[in-house]
Amino acid sequence: MNDVDHTTPIVVADPDGSRDNEVRPFQIEGMDVRGRAIRLGTVVDQILKAHNYPDPVARVLGEVLTLTGLLGSIMKFDGIVTIQTKSSGPVPMMVADYERREDGVGRLRGYADIDETKLSAYGKNPSFEGMIGSKSGYLALTIDQGEDMDRYQGIVELKGASVAEVARNYFMNSEQTPTEIRLLCDRDSVSGHWRAGGIMVQHLARGEEGQERILTRETEEQWNRASVLMHSVKEEELLDPQLDLDQLLYRLYNEDGVRAFDADRLVHACRCSRERLQTVLIQFEDDELQDMVRDGKIDVNCQFCNTTYYFTPDDVASAKA
Ligand SMILES: [Zn+2]
Of 79, 229, 249, 288, which has the fewest Cβ atoms less than 10 A away? Predict the structure, then answer.
């Protein structure tokens, strides 16, 4: 754990031997099916607790973070994967991102914008569709490989009963890859800490890339079997701290044989810093800066980690000079 440069301090360290906060890629023997399983403990707990969102919103953001961890870990290079939702509902925006650096560790962070007044109209347990407002919303996936590289962006309508259903539609529409996915985030019934888990399977194209996918009878049966078994995973199994991902995969696929590959580690870390925010501040005109001063200082909040940085007008003036 100590070799990772955490930008934000870690409040609660993972217990020794913890198998939380990892993504495990796997392959089912004899099938053109690959998959990934993810489990988040302290990482999702820290991100969600920094904000204190109402539980229904925290659950959905937790699922977006879980999806971001899964998709980020597929990336074969250093870069940033961002998932953003926009809608006209009581939760107009959610953002989660995953950054991988040379150390191979995935850094997750995320936040949600909430319109409290609108949200209160939906009662204590608003549905996913209620929160994101099913009319004209979308989910965007962006992959950024750094300054000199092209940016990839894919978009899907925010239609469906869950984040997982939206993600499934994304893979069908944008990538023509049959995908089944489960995502879950909830509080541990004993400790009250947030936990999240997910699993996805994808049917690999056997033909050349770009070629129309033809599912033969045999491979279609295999794919159906792989997805039915994946959907047989119970909610408590996705989150159970006592059941590590290897055991979970074995439970689901031991009859066929499952090969699990090295896990990718995940941490909670934000990219904000005092220097970065100062760079933003010095771009404002003096009179604009003057308007921002409250009680002799300017405070700037990072939406991702909810850290507030304080600057005096003198700090900004000397940085400008
Ligand atoms: Zn931050």
Answer: 288
Residues 34-60: pLDDT tens digits? 999 999 999 999 999 999 999 999 999
Q: How far is the CA of 32 from the centre of ligand 1 (A)?
A: 40
- In whole angstroms, what separates CA 33 from the centre of its chain? 23
Residues 6 or more apart whose Cβ sits within 8 Å of residue 19: 39, 244, 245
- How close is the Cα of 274 to the center of ligand 1, in Å? 10
Alpha carbon of 58 to ligand 1 centroid (Å):
18
The domains of the chain, with CATH numbers, are 22-268 (3.55.30.10), 274-320 (3.90.1280.10)
d(CA 15, CA 10) in angstroms, rounded, equals: 13
Kindly give the distance from the C-alpha atom of residue 264 to the centroid of ligand 1, in angstroms, as a whole number.
23
pTM of the model: 0.90
Cα(130)–Cα(262) distance, rounded to whole angstroms? 39
